[in-house]
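The passage that follows is intended for readers who have already worked through the single-chain material. We present the inputs for a multi-component assembly, then the predicted structure in tokenized form, and finally a short commentary. You are encouraged to pause after the input and sketch how you expect the pieces to fit together before reading on.
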Amino acid sequence: MNGNIWVLASADSVAIATTLILAALGALFTERAGVLNLGIEGILLTSAISSFLAADSSGSIWLGLIVGSLVGALLAGIHAVLSVVLRANQIVAGLALVIFGTGLANFLGKPAEGKTVTTIIKPLSFGPLSDIPLVGPIVFRQDPITYASVVIAIVSSLYLFRSRPGLELRATGDDPATVDAQGLSVASIRIRYTLFGGLLVGLGGSWLMLAQSAAWHQAATTNGVGWIALALVVFAGWRPMRLIFGAILFGFTLQLPFTLQAEQITFIPSALMQMLPYLATLIALIALSRPSTRNKLGAPKSLGIPFVRDER
Amino acid sequence: MRSPIRIVFEQRSETPKHLSVLVPLLSVVAALVVGALFLLATGYSPLETYSNMLSDGFTSSRGITDTLGLSTVLICTGISAAFAFQMNLYNIGGEGQLYLGMIGGAWAGLALGNQLPTFVMIPVVLLVGALAGASWILLPAFVRSRLGTSEIVTTLLLTYIAASLVKHFVYSPGSFFVTKNSAFPQGRLVPDSASLSGIGDTSLYPTFFLVILIALVLFWVVKKTEYGYRIQVISDSPRAAHYAGINANRTTMSVMLISGALSGLGGAVLIIGPFGRLDPGIILLGYGYAGIVIAALARNNFSAIIVSGILFAGLRSGGDKLQISTDTPIHIGVMLQGAILLFALGGEAFRRYHIHAVRTERATQ
Amino acid sequence: MTNASHEVAKGPHHASGAAPSALSAHSIVKRFPGVLANDSVDFDVLPGEVHTLLGENGAGKSTLAAMLCGLYQPDTGYITRNGERIALSSPRAGLQHGIAMVHQHFRLVERFTVAENVILGSRDLSYKLNRSELEDKVAAVAESYGLPIEPGATVGDLSVGQRQRVEIVKALYQGAEILLLDEPTAVLVPAEVEKLFENVHAMTKAGKSIVFISHKLGEVVEISDRVTVLRNGRVTGHVSGRGTADTKELARLMVGRDIELTTQRASHATGHEILQIRDLSLTVGGVNVLSDISFNVHAGEMVGIAGVAGNGQRELADTIAGLMSPTSGSISISGSMTTDRGPIHARELGLAYVPEDRLGMGLVPSMSILDNLLLTRDRRVVVDRTTVRPEATRLIEQFEIKANGPDHMARKLSGGNAQKVLLARELSGGRTATKLLVVCSPTRGLDVGAIETVRALLDDARSAGQAILLISEDLDEVMSLSDRIFVLYRGSVVHETPGESAQLATVGAAMAGLKPEGKS
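Having made your guess, compare it with the prediction:
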């Protein structure tokens, strides 16, 4: 068996992890503020097609990334208004966003069908470093957004656990009444982080489009990555650093079917092979919900619960 | 400087009757306005698009039977979602359970169809489909009731797995479900004994009436029986259920299985009705996801689901035909669905709260 | 205010002397849907003074306090600080003016450390947080007021008394000059109350003003320099002078009439054993919640269980009611074993259970009174509401429940009426006639009228020969009603005494875990 393909597969896992890291970080910030946004999949899709259209019409990849990210924040804004301002059921609001986002993306994507982006985000080269066997392709031949996503995750971790606003963010997800009594605005904190989360998810969707797929395949463009990202947040225990490793792990299961197909390993039918990432996520979720592990994970206590100051 | 005006949410003690009708109605209108903006922006005529949708969905006689025919499966997935939602169980994998219902129904039809008469086969296809749908939620239901694993992501992930399963059964060579030696892979039609024909040669099948009956029975079960009482207690306060000796785990399990079975039934209905075969095209239609919208819009009321199901069927069948007649993207229908739900959720706030702006008094220095 | 003057006045009170009030409320009006919570209320507190707001539950004291700290805004009226009019648009504005509130339900993030909780919301900190530096800073503030806390400890691991101290340190850290203490003693044992009062004195000595909010007359007289009494949102009187106030007079101002919460005990010899508990132990998650508990309750007898919240009371009640299975030991009702047989079996033997949590456990909030009556009964396959309806109507009448009839939703009942519905259902028997009644904190949060009714109902049930187990954190209640008293501490019975000869000091010491003999 060709050993090289497995090195490339590992490099691909790291690359695919980019979207997972960004989307899951977006969900993590949102959830740390106590807002449950299940609409990640819809946001990913819409920002993907938006970035495609922007990059395609302007010829600038960077403009594509910016437009995609802003569209992500915009859709998250809908969720913020519904769940924070209007106190709607966050689960149903998130689902509505998935349905709306999917329909909108496919509607907008009509003219994009069959087209590919002319220039895609290219991997960087670090000269001789990129040629080191094994390590080179995996660590030193990724594109700038991939490196950025890891840096964002590390910075997020410091922000969350070592800074004053991070403390306030964590308190808002755990105990909004306390934050309110301290004179901070729960609504404003929640809206801000929901928007910021949407921005990160949008960046992830844009990257998926402009670096990974390059062509619009309707819903198959994201293919459930948004849902895997949501599971990844649970898997990582709402901690950004753990999220990086989880993302690479799930990234591996996402690209494995393609590697196997390329390697012509067909003892498992390819359609069944495609189940792998979802199956792996499912098993991870179930394994994590054993009561003994669940308590240690530390889900924000007021996740998904609208905050209303007691009026009596 | 902060504006001295504050928005105040005042909980209503009684919801005015007119708002219960007005809010869903205005949501539809608002969504249509948003849709019109998108249509305008992309160079289509909103007026023409909507009038075509209306006539294709509701006003022509062909349109009406098509709509009622499509509503059969949408009401199935709607009551499936609502049955779980009313107990705060978010089964959002109705889509996958529907695929399984289709696989199960097709299997029953293909395996047994040649040996049994129609009046036995139809119930068998429906039953096997329902069981297959229930089987697809068994794992999420089990881990939810035993370990507390959130059913939201598990049921959804299983939808992706179900989609792979459908593709596998259709595209893998020599599969039981496909026509042998066919030029391109295609599901095998079930024998005549396992399918019905549309009423008066339309796309409205007798299963429509069965599904309406099931919705009404569920309405009664929830309102009047001990089982419905239990569901209400558990959904409102699990601790009160525990206090009263109600076994919440068992009820959770059964509610989720019934919800899965109802989506599965939707899949089997398609085998008896228009499809007649396992068709991977189902993956693009999103009937299961539509059920979530239908249930939410009807606020999980089973008789209201009949109405919202038919409404959405009209929207969908009208939207689907646009693609053929005017080249407007088919997805406008799905987008409108999502927008309607978003507006309905926002409107819910106006139903529950009396929202008004007040001027806060500021101290003079 | 050294010379104790004793005056009872109607209308606004003006502080005598020249000292300007630290904080004053002027003609405050606040409306909530359907309630006039504050009706032109005047209130003021001087520097270095303890001024108490006294009133029943729902009298409007918490609402007034919420406006004084910026949580709510008055509809009309205004607030002055050192004589200057201020606008308190949010709790942040309150803190900026040196006003802090210590809530009855602590506003602490359980997963955070003490130091993190104390600094939460402080604006004057650097962006980057340095853990050990913060902990030193917090410890320094705490020590300067003689409030020992451990800044690195996780709040979730602390006792109630310790958490309250963290709240006070938090307020002081933020530079509070005026502290509003909302029912601070409700959750404390007598020894902790003493400690709190020492802290209060330390703070007033340092020039801080304390607004003390309470409905307990005894402690109010002990701690207050002045008292303002509220009833139904209006000020009904002022009393000044520490230790001079007349509790009878205060009670009349608070309730509007003389109250008679007299002692009631079994008037006749008690009957045979209804509840038998033998060597009951319960372990939850490796922690011994109940250890080796044995006692009986007889027909026509009320046994009281005293203790600070979280010492196993709820688990004891739940275990007797069949909601939890004991790790070892046995429970029997009327001679039949109920251990491990579930709540329905226990009810079939005559158990009735009024849990502490009325709405949410005892009653289903979104259901009607009628449906709530069915909760603990046999409902058959198709729920038969028509035959229960007349009974519901009768019970509403008999228990004087204020409701629009059997279809009135439980959520919309007042606390007292919800408790009456619960008692109506449990006392009227469901699957069989009630023989044993387990009640937890039956009068918590109720106004005096409702407390009287509930106590009378319990007394009637006892006279009718029912065995009653009264579990309550309200020591006065247990002391004045019970025929026998057990004190529960860390899951064990540490003290037992007949109700008649029970000593407050001894029982209180036992609740705090001190050996009664060991107390000097």
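Commentary: Residues 361-365 of chain B have pLDDT under 50 and may be disordered. The radius of gyration of chain B is 23 Å. How closely did your sketch match?
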